[in-house]
Amino acid sequence: MNNEKEYTGETKFKFERLRVWQESMDFAEEMHALANGFPDNEKFNLSSQLRRAADSISLNIAEGSIFQSNKEQNKFIGYAIRSLAETITCLHKAKRRNYIEEDIFNQHYKTAYKLMNMLLAFSNSLKNTDKKRSPITDHSSQQHTHRSSVTGHRSKTTNLQSKNNQK
Questions:
Q1: DSSP state at residue 17
Q2: 53 and 83 in contact (C-beta within 8 Å)?
Q3: Cα radius of gyration (the chain)
Q4: Cβ of 38: how many Cβ atoms within 10 Å?
Q5: How many other C-beta atoms are found inside a 10 Å radius of the C-beta of residue 57?
Q6: Are the beta carbons of 155 and 125 closer than 8 angstroms?
Q7: CATH number for the domain running over 14-133
Q8: Distance of CA 25 to CAs 15, 51, 61, 161, Å?
Q9: Domain ranges of the chain
Q10: Other CB atoms closer than 10 Å to residue 81's CB: what's the count?
């Protein structure tokens, strides 16, 4: 008997629900398309590096989300941020070598900047979740639920944390 279930198109893995992962997947496809326009002599150099760096962003987000603590997942988000920085450097090199026009560079740079902010926000949300679990946290106070703009997931904050955020 085969115990495998047929794929129905539903998201099965935690990372597939992360908006930051979805955005990084789209960004990587943009970088692949861009690299296709580079000269043939860059096929195994800048084109390849740009593709690998862009792919590495979503790969690290995914790898960090499977059976990891928030601290460990945050380490992989750091790797994703570094891969994004590498991707941005490849964009600068492509512009300097006149493989892309200024407006194309600016368009992709803007997308990369947005993605960087999403990664940083996700990293901060992981850190904040760990702080809430610390033994110092007063778990007896009332909690409020809010939805993260980065992950789309609900998280809880205490009255004390809510008051501190309002200051």
A1: G
A2: yes
A3: 19
A4: 19
A5: 30
A6: yes
A7: 1.20.1440.60
A8: 11, 12, 10, 33
A9: 14-133
A10: 18
**What pLDDT score was predicted for residue 134?**
46
Tokens of 5: 């279930």
User: By the 8 A CB rule, do 150 and 125 touch?
Assistant: yes
State both tokens at 97: 């070598």
How many Cβ atoms sit within 10 Å of the Cβ of residue 166? 6
Cα 114 from Cα 111, distance rounded (Å):
5
Closest to 61 in 3D by CA, of 49, 51, 72, 52: 72
φ/ψ of residue 140, rounded to 5: -85, -15
82 and 56 Cβ atoms separated by less than 8 Å: no
pLDDT digits (tens, 9 = 90+) for 35-78: 999 999 999 999 999 999 999 999 999 999 998 899 999 999 99
With the C-alpha atoms ordered 20, 82, 32, 112, is the resulting torsion angle positive or negative? Answer: positive
